[in-house]
Amino acid sequence: MNLRSMLALAAIAFGAIGASAQLVWADKNCHYYPEEKVESHQTDTIVPCWRGEKVGALALFAPKSDGVVTAKITGPISGQAHFIDYVITDQFRACGKHPEDLQPYHVPDIISDPATQVTAGQTRPVWVSIEIPQDLKPGVYVDSLTIDGESIPLTLKVNRRTLPSPVDRKFYLNLWQQPYAISRYYGVEPWSDSHFELLKPYAKMLANASQRTISAILFFEPWGEQSNDLFLPMVETFKNHDGTWEYDYTIFDRWVEFMTEQGVGPDIECYSMIPWEMNFRYFDRAKNDYAYLKTTTDSPEYRELWSNFLRAFAAHVKEKGWFDRTIIAMDERSMTDMKNAIEIIDEAAPGMKISLAGNYHPEIADRLYALSLTQGDQYPAGEVNRRRERGQYSCLYTCCSSPEPNLFSNSAPADAAWIPVHCTITGHDGYLHWSWSNWTDDPLNDSRFKLFAPGDTYFIYPDAKSSVRFERLIEGIELSEKIRLLKEEFIAENNAAALEDLNNALMIMTHTRPRANAPTGLQINAINAIIANYE
């Protein structure tokens, strides 16, 4: 679809054109472009919300003249307002080499700054974010969005119910981190004090989204150098002159301690015993250079490498008090390779947790602390509940092989909210996405990459700028928590009728993908309306 077609669709979604109003609320399930005309009739929006919720709303501002303007939210609750910037995308929604013949277009996704330069006649979208205090008295509150002398009210209808703080939420969010992209982008030495200082706001953003895992890299490039930035090891492995092995955990320890201090975790996912290219780099002290072991999971060399590593690693994380948090993690590996790796883990580090993002294999499922299946793959009936009773997590994940719903920059805005709600309604514990900050060379301008769909490699921007996609993902996690809490409330009250009514109403979301006549935006709106009925 070209830019002209998308503009026409967005204009239709927004409605009739009016010339008088300069600032209005808009449908956050739509993308809006500079050519939009701002309509005058919608100047108020009512948002039902719970205490402890982060509310997101979208407005459109049509400036009367050129200049720098500032967006502000004021009122009894208050919050933040930021202009939304555009990033280049296209319609590629698959894995593999990015086609060169697709027409690029701009999509509004970067939640940028409160102040910006505007041009007369060019409409700008504005993202409003308000965090409802957990101890706020239930009732109706009216805040105001103001830009360049124009103001519109935002009515917040605060429910008596309260969402837990992000750290206490049950949803299991697993977004893999790429700290080296941040050091590369800002030109600082990896793991220097400057690097850690730059990492702080990104870690806080993850913690505030209920992130449950810390991504740690054990050996060089678990994913075969497919990303824009190399995944360097956080544990240095040395082979001594006498053939013995030695390990330096300095970076690993500091990374885990840092992320824990920022509120991320508690789990530490360590990649990978089965990298995509099965090539393990270590420093050979006899040669005074790096060496590589190209091997298979059933070879004696592989067993020697990993038996020594795991024994030492298990002893180290036990000494740090992290053994129960530590997970040996694999991504999209075969059952044969997984069985070989599990055998070595059980011999060298008994009790060490294991995770897999991939297909369901009944032969090894019981041994996996966390298992994430791609959309379309199914857990057997009753399996998720059995795993939950054992203290194990069962999640879903999306990657470039899932055309939609997804978190690409060309995805529908509501997709990011739909995904976690779908995970919860279908009985799963959470959601995994393989990348969060794998930036391109010019991430604030162009989200396309040589491999994968545009935006698949990241949905957070430099200078700790959030995105519409990330904010909608948080919305979906909060909506998932509301569903869980309402079900628990009805069960505790023995209110079978209310529980049945809620479950029946949620059936709209049980399909793997949205029905053709109910795209993600309509479904999310319907679920929000259902939840709002429980006052």
Beta-strand proportion: 25-35%
The CATH superfamily title of the domain at 3-159: Immunoglobulins
Give the CATH level 1 class of the domain at 3-159: Mainly Beta
Distance linking N and C termini: 42 Å
* Overall strand count: 22
How would you state the average pLDDT, rounded?
92
Q: How does the major sheet shape up?
A: 8 strands, parallel
Q: What's the structural blueprint in terms of helices and strands?
A:
Layout (H helix, E strand, L loop, with lengths): L2 H12 L8 E4 L18 E7 L2 E8 L5 E8 L5 E10 L15 E7 L3 E4 L5 E8 L7 E9 L2 E13 L9 E4 L3 H8 L6 H16 L4 E5 L18 E4 L5 E4 L1 H12 L5 E5 L7 E6 L4 E6 L5 H21 L5 E6 L3 H14 L4 E6 L11 E5 L8 H7 L3 E6 L16 H11 L4 E4 L34 H25 L3 H10 L14 H13 L3
Parallel strand pairs: 2-10, 11-22, 12-15, 13-16, 15-18, 18-19, 19-20, 20-21, 21-22
Antiparallel strand pairs: 1-3, 3-8, 4-7, 4-9, 5-6, 5-8, 9-10, 13-14, 16-17
Describe the structure.
With 535 residues, the protein is α/β, with parallel strands linked by helices. It has a domain at 3-159: Immunoglobulins (Immunoglobulin-like, Sandwich), CATH 2.60.40. 28% of the residues lie in helices and 26% in strands. It has helices spanning 3-14, 179-186, 193-208, 250-261, 300-320, 335-348, 383-389, 415-425, 468-492, 496-505, 520-532, and strands at 23-26, 45-51, 54-61, 67-74, 80-89, 105-111, 115-118, 124-131, 139-147, 150-162, 172-175, 213-217, 236-239, 245-248, 267-271, 279-284, 289-294, 326-331, 353-358, 370-374, 393-398, 430-433. The strands form 4 sheets. The chain has an 8-stranded parallel β-sheet. Strand 21, helix 8 (415-425) and strand 22 form a beta-alpha-beta unit. Helix 8 packs parallel to helix 9. The longest helix is centred in the last third of the chain and has 25 residues, at 468-492.
